[in-house]
Every structure is written in structure tokens, then in C-alpha cells.
Amino acid sequence: MQFERTELIHLTISILTITAAFYIILGDIGEGYGLLTIFLTVGLAFLLHELAHKLTAQKFGCIAVYRVWTFGLILAIAFPILTGFVFAAPGAVYIHKRYLTVRENGLISLSGPMVNFLLAFAFFGLIFLAPGLATLGFWGFNINMFLGLFNMLPFPPLDGYKVLSWSKVTWVVFFGSLVYFVFIFNPINFI
């Protein structure tokens, strides 16, 4: 996977912006390590989500580059200040190919939230494998599940819209799993 300098700058700006947005909402979580905890959980969640889109698109022969969305950066900071809710859409992977099938587009879109889902369970494992990092595990799990759920909402331009357009069954099963882990399952019971 190759990156151009502009793409790396845009990814860095986006990671710092969504870290700030989540910090506005969550504040000092992590027993005095709030900003670091948010940076590690949100930053990693965002970065791996976007890289999954890029890599999957490249597997389908596309040119794929990440670019910031200036209005999305503004919303990322304004929303938590004004509403108490994070709207985390600071940019996206832009894909260039003559033609993508609905299936290819659906798989590219699914790859980002799927990475968040899997990363959530990697963070969850910290609760058991490294009890000293249980707070990081707790927040990493919740933030990744939340980002996966948000991105799977079935509205354009979110990933869920493209997944639903490709496969209703895939969308229902995956979205339902995310709803369960965001609203019903509570990792605090394991700490």
C-alpha cells in the first residue's frame, strides 16, 4: 500500500480532529490518560477503518486515496460542542475506477466497519490479557463498535447505504450485531 505525502497529511489532520472531537465529549477517561486513551482508540479505529477501504479498493484494481472533507472537519469539532454528539466524518477514501460492481462497492464499504468490529474485540481482549489496560480495552471496544454502527447506518454517503444496496442480508446481520454490542452487551461486566 503506497501513500502520497498529501494523503499522509490528510490522515494526520483527520486523526487529530476526531481525537479532539471525542475528547470534547469524553474528557479525561482512562484514569488520567484521557487524551492518550482517546488518541489510541479513536485514532487507531479511524486509521484502520480508512486503510481497510483503501486496501480493499486496491484489491479490486482501483486507485484509492484518502482526502479530508473540510466541512466534515468543521462538523467533527462543532457537533460535540453544540450537541454533545460526535459526527465523525472528517474525510474519506476516494476511489477511482472505470466501473465498480454493486458487490465490489459493497465489499469495499463493508471492509471499514468490519475492521472496527474486529478491532473492538482485540481491545476487549485487553480486559483479560492485560488487566492494567482494562480501561483502554473498555473504551477501545465501545468506540470501535460505535464507529462501526455509525458507519453502517443506511444513509448515503455512509458505508451502510452501499452495503445495503449490495446485500440486504449482509447489512441486516452485521448491523444487528453492531446494535447488540453497542446497546445490549456491556463489557463493563467483565472488568
Number of separate structural domains: 1
Beta-strand proportion: 5-15%
Overall SS class: mainly alpha
Distance between the termini: 37 Å
Low-confidence stretches: none
Number of helices: 7
- Give the strand line-up of the largest sheet: 1-2
Q: How many runs of DSSP E, i.e. beta strands? A: 2
Order of helices and strands: HHEHEHHHH
Main β-sheet: number of strands, strand sense, barrel status? 2 strands, antiparallel
Radius of gyration: 16 Å
Which shape, going by the Cα principal axes? globular
The helix content is 55-70%
Mean pLDDT: 93
Report on this model:
There is one protein chain. This protein is mostly helical and 191 residues long. The protein has one domain. Helix content is 69%, strand content 6%. The protein has a two-stranded antiparallel ribbon with strand order 1-2. Helix 1 packs parallel to helix 3 and helix 5 runs antiparallel to helix 7. The protein is globular.
